[in-house]
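Record 1 of the preview.
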Amino acid sequence: MGRDEFEKIYWELHPRLLAYARGQLDDAGAYDVVASTFETLWKKELVYPADDQGGWKQFTALAFQVLKGHVSNEYRSRHRRASLWRRLLVLGPEPETSVDSSAHVDSAEAARDWLSRLSEADRHVIALFNAGYSTKETAEILSCSVSAAARRRDRAKQRLREIVNREVSSGDQDTRV
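->
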């Protein structure tokens, strides 16, 4: 694939990939993983997708799979860094992990914390829907049926609801999501 073709792909996919990444990471992390995704796609020396919809859908699905891997790597990296800091700071207590829901319910940081407690598959599905993808588009990206994508979304939302409700309950709040 030549530079001109790659630029076309970049301008087409960048906003979509960035919206997905921003649903899971802070802005700096989102920009980093999207840049890494395009670097990976460039290094693979792929063939430019055919003009038919099937070729473009496959390329888009591949781009999201690569991005998903980079997002997962970022989560693992952040977890390792936090763990290292806790070990290095042995003189201090373990950091408080409960979330004060009254102060953080609207916080993007709290939402990312709650999302990080989901499985990678659940985070992926929720991020796709939060990025504005329809059930049909999500099914294409996940390479599954529309009904399977809807079930995955519903189950992921239920698991997220349970996490949030546990946090709210532990904060002595009676608010349920």
